[in-house]
Amino acid sequence: MESSPYSIVNPKIDPSRKPVAKVKPDGSPADNDRVEFGPTELAFKEWAELGITAPNLERMRQTRLNKLCAELKKRDYGAALLFDPLNIRYANDSSNMQLWISHNPARACFVSADGYMVLWDFHGCDHLSSYLPLIKEVRHGAGFFYFDAGDKQMEKAEEFAAQIDDLMRTHCGDNRRLAVDKIEIHGVHALEKLGVDIVSGQEVTEHARLIKDIDEINAMRCAMATCEISVAAMREALQPGIAETELWAVMHAENIKRGGEWIETRILSSGPRTNPWMQEAGPRVIQNNEMVSFDTDLIGPYGYCSDISRSWFCGDGEPTAEQRHLQHVAYDHIMTNMDMLKPGVSFRELTEKGKRLPPEFVPQRYGVMMHGVGLCDEFPAIFYPEDFVDGAFEYVLQPGMTLCVEAYIGAVGGKEGVKLEDQVLITETGYENLTTAPFDEKLMQGFENFSG
């Protein structure tokens, strides 16, 4: 490989440091001073007790890159240019200020169809990816958003585009098709001026991420276990008199304690705030004999998402008939739809043959019946018939896909609402429910007599 003015010129490992012989269960160095973050010893201990195998990180990283390159080759694209921090994470497993970068696009990643990878990182952050050999070069200067570039956005975009043009001529031959996921408008103009044919990078990355291999599934199992341990701690803390935000903080703290990363949303509500849905955790104090409903949207260890929902009864009394009815309808809905899952079933069929909501709950239905999940909520979206877009999702279920099956049940003007959601893996013969978090026993009483 010819040297580049942007290549890493410093050794990836400080020669003054002694080599580390021991490794953690995921194959990463058992070095207390390492740059790489990840699960804590508490997490590894809990996973071992649960019989969960950690992923092989080296193999997982290579497999994810191979899948990304395969999608590029399938479409005859020369390369991908990624700005979305989750797509960058998928391509090379690097991470740097993920939430900040999501609205300040200062990082980017170029991946040619043959796997040559260049990472543009934030200023002074070369060391953060020093343990990732799939990255061949680390550069700077991908930020041409207004906060960073001011009134010189076009000039900075042109400088960046010239680097992309050079990389494509070097690694893509005559292929000028570049799959871009997200980019500032000045970058589009600068690349097109150089004759680059910009195509959809989101399509490429979503399909690369669609089917999980064994290490991705193991990583998800680890994240799910951490999520459910965190949810159990939140359930233990639930009592009348606690504020929604105070309760929500328990789950976040337990996730972080084990090497989890962040929460995508703050969707936890109580009592009358459970209807309508999507109200985020606030200062409201939870009262006796009320409903509490939440959606985890939790990014756990290894950056994998655990997206489950539960509704709980909080109090020393008994749920009302209406509270139980909401729970029973929601439970019946997700379990009936889950039973449709097996390889070969089309996304269209899931929409057309899925469980219908009772009419009173249709107006406030959730946005999807099911959705893909991986590093976050992912393709596909399985809509209710009322929201189906003809021709948008003409695909079928395949082994290795992971989905969340969910429902919100709350009538317009109703007192409360219930949100339930489980995360599942499509297997060779059907599905495996990856979720073990229990449903509220008091709310589930009498379900054996439910006829939906």
Description:
It is built from 13 helices and 17 strands. The radius of gyration is 24 Å and the shape is globular. It has helices at 41-50, 57-74, 85-92, 98-103, 146-149, 153-171, 185-193, 201-208, 214-237, 244-257, 321-338, 347-353, 441-444; strands spanning 79-82, 108-112, 117-120, 137-139, 177-180, 197-200, 262-263, 268-270, 290-295, 298-299, 305-306, 309-314, 370-373, 377-382, 402-409, 418-426, 431-433. Helices cover 33% and strands 17% of the residues. By secondary structure, the chain is an alpha+beta fold. A hairpin with a 4-residue loop joins strand 16 (418-426) and strand 17 (431-433). The chain starts with 40 loop residues before the first helix and ends in an 8-residue tail after the last helix. Helix 9 packs antiparallel against helix 10 (244-257). Strands 4-3-2-1-5-6 form a six-stranded mixed beta sheet. A five-stranded antiparallel beta sheet has the order 14-13-15-16-17.
